[in-house]
Fold this protein.
Amino acid sequence: MIQVNDLHFAYGSNSHDTLKGLNFQVDTGEIFGFLGPSGAGKSTTQKILIGILKNYRGAVQVNGLDLHHLNSEFYESIGVAFETPNLYSKFTALENLEFFAQFYTNETRNPLELLAAVGLEDASETRVSDFSKGMKVRLNFCRSLLNNPKLLFLDEPTAGLDPVNLRKMEALILAEKARGNTICITTHDMHVADTLCDRVAFIVDGEVSLIDSPRDLKLQHGERFLEIEYRVGDSVQTKSISMEKLGTNDTFQNILNNHYVETIHSREASLEDVFVKTTGRLLQ
Amino acid sequence: MRLLAAVAQDIRFQFRHGFYYAYLVLTVLYIITLRLLPESLVHPALTLILFTDICALGFFFIGAIVLLERGQNLPQSLFVTPLRLHEYLLAKIFSFLFLSIASAFLIMLGAFVGGQDLIWFIFGAIMSTLIYTLFGLVFAARARHVNDYFVKALGIGLLISLPIFAYLRLFDTPLFYVFPTRATLILLDVLNVDYSISEKLFSVVSLVIWFFILSGITYQRFDKHVRHPA
C-alpha cells in the first residue's frame, strides 16, 4: 500500500534534513505505527504521505501512485485525522460532517451512525465550540471515516481521551482493520502502539532505527525472568527467577511448595523499554 | 458540486462569524449618511462610500475571514479532501462577492440612485470587489495573525488608494493609471461624471488585467503557504 525509499526532507531553507533517508513499506490491511518522541519526524513523514509536504527527495508511492504526481482523486480513498482537531467551531458536529461529505464522489457513511459509534449521538446538534478536547478528537475521527477510506492516517488518535473512550477508539480502529483497510498511526503513546499496531517503526532524529511487530520486539529485547512475591512470616519477599526450565528450578519449586505466594509476573519488556534500549532516547 | 458546497459553506461561515451583521450596520449607516446629504453631494459621496465599502472593507474582511479559518486549522482539513485549491479560492471570492455586491446594491437602492451608465457601474463594482478580495487573499496567505495581516494590509491599502487624491482633485499624475484604484474610481463614478468611452474602456481593461495578475499570484501564494506549507 505504501512504499518509501530513501526519503529525505528539509523544511524551508534549513540546511539540515528533518528526514534523513527513511525506508519502509506498509502492507495492505495492516496497522502501521510511527513511534518516536516529539520532533522526531513522525508528523513530517505523515504529512508527506498525505501530500501536504512536497519537495521531498526519494521515492514515495501510496496505493500505486507516485506522490510527485498527486491529484485530487488521491483524496477520494484516504482519510486523515490530524492531531489538532480542525473543525468549524461555529457549526454543529452534524453540520461539520455533512459539509465535508459533500466533497466526495464515492458513497459516504451516514454521519449520524459515525457519531453514534464514537458516543457523540447526543451531541450531533451541539456546536463544536462547546465540545471538550476529547469530543473534538472523536469528531475528527468520524470525519476521517466519512469517505470509507481504504487508507487511514491517524495522528495521535487517542490524545485527550478518557479511559472509556480510549478503549472505544481502539475498538473502532481495529474494526477498520477488520474491514480490510490500512491504517497508519503516528503516536508517542507506546500503549496505543502496543495495543493496535501490527508493526511499528521507531523514528528518532529523522531516521528509522527499527521496524518490527511489538510482540517480536518485546520478545527479542525482553528479559526471560519472572518476579515472584511471597510471604515469609510477617514479611513479603521478592525474587527474580529465570523462566528457563521453571518446572525443575529448585528455588521456584521451594517457594511454591513452602510459602504463601502473593504475585507472579513475567518480566517481558514494554515497548517503551525496547524503544529506550534500542534508541537510547525517551519517548516523551 | 464541490464548488457549490464550498461557496454555501463560506457564506454560512461569514454569517455565523458576524460579517453579515457588520455589513448590515455599515450599509444602514451609509444609507443614512447619503439621505442626509444635499442632492448635489449624493453622487460623489456615493462613489467614495462604495469605494470604501467594496474595496477597503473587502480588503480587510477577506483577510480576517482567511485568518479566522486558519485559526481553526480548517485549510489543512479541506486540502486532504478532493476539494481543489482553485475551488477553495473561488468559494472565498464568490461568497464575498455576494456579500459585497448585496451591500452595494442596498446602498444604491437606499440612496435612490440610478442612471444610464449602470452597466459600466455594475461591471466596475463587481471587478473591483474581485480585485480587492484577491489583494486581501494575497496578503492573508502568508500572514500568521490578524495583527500581522492588518499591518501589511494597511500599508498596501494606503498605497493603492493614492488615486483618491486625483478623484478629490488634490493631486494627479499619469502614474495613477497603473493603479487599479484609478479604474475603480472611474467606473464607480460613471453615474456622477460623464467620462469618455475611452476612459471607461481603459478602466475595464485595467481591471481585467489586474484580475488575472492577482488571480495567478493568489493561487501561487496559497499553494505555497497554505496548501503545501513547509
